[in-house]
Write a structure and sequence with these properties.
single chain, mainly alpha, about 75% helix, disordered N terminus
């Protein structure tokens, strides 16, 4: 086996989205629009902490773009996203039944951890440990897709509201259809059955979410922090999904 890490395109999407989110967080003074930013900003010296984290996220997003520094970038992003995930734990303990703001957000951040994890270990020379580590990243992303399924199922009406009204046959139809699609993808990713196809279709679906939901939101209301942060987060998750698909398709390891 030869090292071919870096040919997958997913890391470029993840890195660009990470840089964008870091820049948005650094230059925007409204930290209430995104949960982990709100949590950080409410601590002593919180605004400084947000800016430090944002700088690290931007550096990681840049470093992951190039093969010589991709491992450093993946490490920085993985640590940042793990930090964001851990911030969710007190919220889960306080309100265990509030899935969206607790477990839902936790697994969103862990999906980004899985993308950074795969890139980090794909850059290592081939070894049995490397192969196991890459599989861990793939299964972690599969668990996150399980969470995406659960969250959409629990908040089906809210999910339907995100669907543009002009898309036929109805908003609820597409809310149900995408929930089922996530569920089937989770089964495929965790079982290994048709996992390559599932990872590609999941990536495409998340990319379309950004094009149909968040891009129009930014165009219609560019002054709202939530719209920009949502767009960046959507494509960061798309990048993680793309990285998983790259790995399963053999673009990272051949």
């Amino acid at each position: 086996m030869t090292r071919t890490s870096g040919y997958g395109f997913g890391r470029h999407i993840l890195g660009a989205a990470a840089f964008a989110f870091g820049a948005i967080s650094f230059f925007w003074h409204d930290f209430d629009a995104w949960q982990h930013l709100q949590t950080l900003s409410s601590t002593p010296g919180g605004e400084l902490l947000v800016r430090i984290v944002s700088i690290v996220e931007m550096i990681g997003g840049l470093c992951i773009q190039w093969r010589r520094s991709e491992r450093l970038g993946a490490l920085l992003l993985g640590l940042i996203y793990l930090f964001f995930a851990l911030i969710c734990v007190p919220r889960i303990i306080a309100k265990p039944l509030s899935y969206g703001s607790g477990f839902g957000t936790l697994f969103e951040e862990l999906s980004l951890v899985s993308g950074a994890w795969i890139v980090f270990f794909a850059a290592e020379p081939p070894s049995p440990w490397r192969a196991r580590a890459l599989q861990i990243g793939r299964y972690l992303f599969g668990l996150c897709v399980v969470s995406f399924t659960i969250e959409q199922a629990l908040y089906l009406e809210a999910t339907a509201e995100f669907v543009p009204k002009w898309i036929l046959p109805s908003q609820m139809f597409w809310a149900i259809a995408t929930t089922i699609a996530f569920g089937l993808a989770a089964i495929a990713l965790l079982s290994g059955l048709m996992s390559r196809l599932a990872s590609r279709l999941t990536t495409a679906m998340i990319v379309v979410f950004g094009l149909l939901i968040w891009v129009p939101a930014v165009i219609l209301d560019p002054h709202t922090h939530m719209n920009w942060a949502g767009l960046a987060q959507n494509y960061a998750i798309a990048g993680a999904a793309w990285i998983t698909a790259d790995f399963l398709s053999g673009h990272l390891t051949q």
